[in-house]
Write a structure and sequence with these properties.
34 residues; 68% helix; 0% strand; PucR_C-HTH_sf; PucR C-terminal helix-turn-helix domain-containing protein
Length: 34
């Protein structure tokens, strides 16, 4: 998990950052980018 935090530049302990990352991944999938 620490590696994901480093690559994405987020703090997964922070609920708002975790939610933003989750929504970003969902949107990318919906748009066919992932």
């Amino acid at each position: 998990m620490r590696r994901i935090e480093q690559i994405a530049g987020v703090d997964l302990a922070d609920g708002q950052q975790r939610l933003a990352l989750h929504l970003g991944i969902k949107l990318a999938r919906l748009q066919g980018r992932v």
